[in-house]
Design brief:
Helix content is 35%, strand content 12%. By secondary structure, the protein is an alpha+beta fold. Helix 2 packs across helix 7, helix 2 packs antiparallel against helix 8 and helix 7 packs across helix 8.
Length: 219
């Protein structure tokens, strides 16, 4: 053993394996997400319909006007912490909160959409996995305002991701956009179907096919 140690010291080579670097944990899903088998069954039961129009849809609340899904990040559970802060605290590691407040001021995100790490809350956005515009087209236009507010702030549909990739997604559905990290296809499909099923929303034929494909990756 002493000879081995001497050789290591003289050659500068390591004779012992180094521990593997930790990989970003990107397979997480929000609490309440359906498992793969239930997601497949739920997807098959969703009504198939052509998406409706966006007439009347207003996302932003500029100038104090009421947007159709209500105040963004509304504290629906009344715990004093808005939904954005709750998602950041849930999805980030090394979280530091603002002094005396629940707001998150720093932390590191293992971004499920890209498989990379993002540091700094300014680079992180909260994605509605089922976009609000898609909710509107597939049934939410007929809901009461209170139901739309609850759906827009449902933690099952909110995931912290890289701001850049979230911007590239926009309001696209799975037949138009999927996370660049192919390893997250199963999880993404499960989350998407969970929300569609929970609110009885319809799916378009191409959207359903894309979700079926995503769920085949679950194994």
């Amino acid at each position: 053993m002493r000879w081995l140690l001497l050789i290591v010291l003289l050659t500068g080579c390591s004779a012992l394996p180094l521990p593997p670097a930790s990989a970003p944990q990107v397979d997480r899903v929000p609490a309440g997400t359906l498992d793969a088998v239930t997601a497949r069954t739920s997807l098959a039961a969703l009504p198939v319909a052509t998406p409706g129009r966006l007439d009347g849809y207003v996302r932003d609340c500029d100038g104090g006007k009421a947007c159709v899904f209500g105040q963004p990040w509304f504290d629906t559970d009344g715990d004093g912490c808005d939904q954005r802060s709750q998602v950041l605290a849930r999805d980030l590691t090394g979280v530091e909160r603002k002094p005396g407040r629940c707001g998150v001021q720093s932390g590191t995100l293992d971004d499920p959409y890209t498989g990379t790490q993002v540091t700094g809350t300014s680079k992180i956005q909260i994605d509605h996995v089922v976009p609000l515009a898609e909710m509107w087209r597939s049934g939410a236009a007929r809901w009461a305002p209170e139901q739309r507010l609850a759906a827009a702030n449902d933690l099952r549909n909110l995931v912290a991701v890289s701001g850049k990739v979230n911007q590239s997604k926009g309001d696209k559905t799975p037949d138009e956009w999927m996370p660049p990290n192919a390893g997250y296809a199963c999880s993404y499909g499960r989350i998407y179907v969970t929300v569609k099923a929970a609110y009885g929303l319809s799916v378009a034929p191409a959207e359903r096919s894309a979700l079926e494909q995503a769920l085949t990756t679950c194994g």
